[in-house]
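Appendix B. One record, verbatim.
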Amino acid sequence: MQRYFVNVKANNNFIIINDDYHHIVNVMRMNIGDQIEVSYYNKLYLCKIDNIEINKIILSIVNELNENNELNVNLVLAQALVKEEKFEYILQKGTELGINAFIPIIMDRSIVKLDNHKIDKKKTRWSRICKEASEQSKRLIIPRINDPITIKELIKLNYDYKILCSTNEKENNIKRVLQNLKENDTILIVIGPEGGITDIEEQLLIDNGFIKVSLGSRVLRTETASLFVASIINYELMR
């Protein structure tokens, strides 16, 4: 069953507009009486299409559904800015793997440099990618996408686990670090750009409480590394 995220409610009815309206009417070709799932402020509902107007769809609530596919930790990916196609791939697949928020990081070896006037346009596209991936993977939330920040801003953030994935680390693997994960822990994962994290950046993170970990004996591409870590955390938390 199709799932949509809705943020407009009037009395006991949900209202669908814009892109979701187009998807329901023109792509899925749904009609009055058809049912869909709706996520509204982290709660899931089974709804029925009551009316299809020129620019909006009116839904009534059939019943509330008791379903939660979210990880029981708060997983945040601090991903260095990389080429657009790679970054969008990370957003899509990271959303499917349960990441709750993405923090784009400006690093010395980042090939991509975003001007301030481009950020809002990029974030709009990135948010749409996360929304569609959340619907496809049956999530209750859409991951948050922060504005890009620097390493000096990153080190000020507080998490239960602050993990730096490093090709320089050989002994301390991520499995060992994550073996004591508890429900509701907050986890920040840092992944560098295509050219890697510089020694100066790495030392700054370590000096500010980040744990340097190895992802194994092979050197992974940046987009592979981020999804590898998210997959490991999913495995560790699997019930």
